[in-house]
Structure formats: structure tokens, C-alpha cells
Amino acid sequence: MNIADAKTIPMTEILDRLGTPPQRVTQLKAWYLSPLRQEKTASFQVDLKSNLWYDFGEGMGGDLVHFVCLYLKSHRQDHTVSDALRWIKNMVGAAYQITPIVFPEENPPDPALLLKTKKPIQHLGLINYLKKRGIALALARQHLKELHLRNPQTQKSFFALGFENEEGGFELRNPFFKGCLRPKAISFIRGTTPKPNSIHLFEGFMDYLSALAQTNHHRLNGDAIVLNSLACLKQALPYLHNYGYQLAYSWMDNDPAGEKATATLADFCKTQQGLTHQPMNAVYAPHKDVNAWHMHQLNLSM
What we know:
The protein is of the alpha+beta class. It contains eleven helices and 15 strands.
């Protein structure tokens, strides 16, 4: 794909594939919450006639290629024009058109939680929660933050473990709560090996941390994607498309939904030359997921 071809692709189509719906649409303009940063008021404008964008919050704009360069940079990925063209091709390429099974979100939408503070984990209740799940504090501090949040509907505040995703949101966990600080998205973690030949896909971050705990490492050699919800599976596919991975290890739950996700990944990998799919379910069967197996290995129970 060249720059001229890329400029013919509607910005609205790319934003839709990123899971960013328009907040307001007129005959000539569409307004979005900026995908380049967090904001509460839509200030990212797309001109539907010229296919150009402008971010009023940042005071900059341009065409699709320029946007993708900035988007990749904001996600700490290589962001040259060539990288942007490859990313765009992956997003709209024929292989990507495979439609994965649509999974509903596991939890109903949370109220608009407000983040008050973010810091290293030190709350005793959260530390004890991690201990019961078999996750050492040193490992958890490499990947999680302690978040202090407030529910504006109930005016109640609480603490939770926060696992950041690629859109600046957080998956939230404590002994009594499971939810997210929107937006909802996958989390991508680089491996210790530059340009690795493998990638691991996990359903949740507790499974990812459990796999790390079992290997006694703070990071895998290969890259990793944590879906954070099976509903986010479609967001993971562009990361696998034409990147050069040779092995894709899946760590989905041993339940019907996990089996469907595993089958979807297997079908997608068949479209990628040189990419072999390896489900890891046999490692932690008959347990439901990786964390349950990990806890069993440590003789722990919730």
C-alpha cells in the first residue's frame, strides 16, 4: 500500500475499527473523543468531504497516514510512514476481513468512575488479595498500579488494582469488585526478545501474571496480548497480521466462550503465512483458567 492508496481510506472506517464511535455527526463533520489522548469532550474532528482530521485539543491535524503515525507513537510502537502504511494495510487487508465471533462484554458497563490517584501498590488489602491469587508483590508492581477511584453515582470511593490497556483505560480488580475504567481495550506487552517469533494471547491479566509466576520471570520472551475481555478479540487480530510471528500461543479459558475464542484465533492464524497456532489449554486443564491452575499448584483457594 502506498500513501495515495492510504489517503482514500475513510478516517471514519479506521476510527470505527479502533472502537472509537462518533459522538456527533453532521452532514460534513464527525466529532470524536480523541484516540490520541484521554478527554471527556469530543474535540477530534473529521471532515467527511476532505477525509482530513483536526484535533482541537492538541492544535494539529492532517491525513490518515499522519494520524496513524501519531497513533502508533502514542502506543510506544514504531511510527515511521512505512510502519503506518503497514498498519493501515493490516487493518483493511483481505485477511483481516475474517469476522471473529462477537463476544458480549462479561460485565455490564460501569458508571463513569473517576480516577483520583494512581501509584505503586501499597494498600494492604490489595497486597493480601494478590497473595491469595498467588501473585508476588514484586511481580504485580511490574505490571499493575494501585488506583483510588470514586463512583459519582454513589459518591463512594474505593481502591483497586489497575492494569493499563492500549487506550489509556484500566482493568480494575479488588476482592469485591471486577470492572474497568473506560475505555475498554486490549493490553499489549513487549517481550524481552527484540522482534520475537512468538506472541501469547491471554484472556485476563491475572492469567498473564500467573503464567509469569510459573516461569519465575517478570516478562515473557515473546510479546503478549491480554484481551481484558473476549469482546476485544477483534482488536488483537491486526497485531498478528503480517507481523512475522511464527507461533501464536493462546491461553483462553476452559469453557464454551474460551473454546470459541480459541477456534477464532485458530481460523485467523490459518490465513497468516508461516504462523502456527498453539492452544495451551492442556497445560492448565481441568482448571477453568491459568490463574485457577496456578493457585492449585500453590495449594491456594479463594
